[in-house]
Amino acid sequence: MDGTLKAGTMLQERRLAEALGLSRTPVREALSQLQTEGLVTFHGRRSASIPKLEVVDFVEILKVRRLLEAEAARLAAERGLPEEKVTRIRMAIADFLQIPAPSPVEHWEVDDLIHGSIAEASQNQLLHDTIRDLRRRTHIFDTNVIPERRVPGAAEHLLIIDAIEKRDPAAAADAMAAHIDNIKRSIVERITRGA
After folding, report:
1. How far apart are CA 142 and CA 130, in angstroms?
2. What is the pLDDT of residue 153?
3. Domains located in the chain, CATH noted
């Protein structure tokens, strides 16, 4: 999840068990769980790899996330987000913008705080878990591919938080949908330009 192992990296059960100081059984179970989450692909019985997330896969996930996260934002605005959480999110965004060249890990920490807090505030466990799982699958995608999204993305996050704080469900849902549309648009434009 932190990008240490890149897409395409082969994972051998025996070597992982040795490196982690574990028996092969818990490693095998962990790899099976990661496969279920779409984070590992098996090749035979003892070998797996980290899948490369193709742009088309990323865009498909974003389409589903748009629907679900707009609904989560709407529900969060209806139910409210605790003031201390809003303050924490605003501070995290401000701190993130001060980092000259944030790493993917720094990006995902802030992004997970924002999107995870909104999904949690929806008070719908299935919605929360589904959003979390879809977001985890997109963690494989290198955020450095679209560095121009950092400042606009932060502004969009603040618009979403503002709407939730004002208890405006329609504005929160619209802001979240626009945010995800803008991510998708940036990725497609970047690929189209051949970068």
Report:
1. 21
2. 94
3. 10-49 (1.10.10.10), 55-192 (1.20.120.530)
Taking the whole predicted model, whether its pTM rises above 0.90 is answered as: no
Q: Is the dihedral angle over the CA atoms 110, 116, 122, 127 positive or is it negative?
A: positive
Q: How many CB atoms lie within 10 A of CB 14?
A: 11
Mean pLDDT of 159-179: 98
Dist. CA 147–CA 153, nearest whole Å: 10
Residue 149 scores a pLDDT above 60: yes
Is pLDDT at 109 greater than 70 in this prediction? Answer: yes
At how many degrees (to 10) do helices 24-36 and 13-20 cross?
A: 120
Lowest mean pLDDT among 61-70, 151-160, 185-194: 185-194
* C-beta contacts of 60-68 below 8 A and 24+ residues apart: 61/134, 61/137, 61/138, 62/138, 62/180, 62/183, 62/184, 63/184, 64/134, 65/131, 65/134, 65/135, 65/138, 65/180, 66/176, 66/177, 66/180, 66/181, 66/184, 68/127, 68/130, 68/131, 68/134
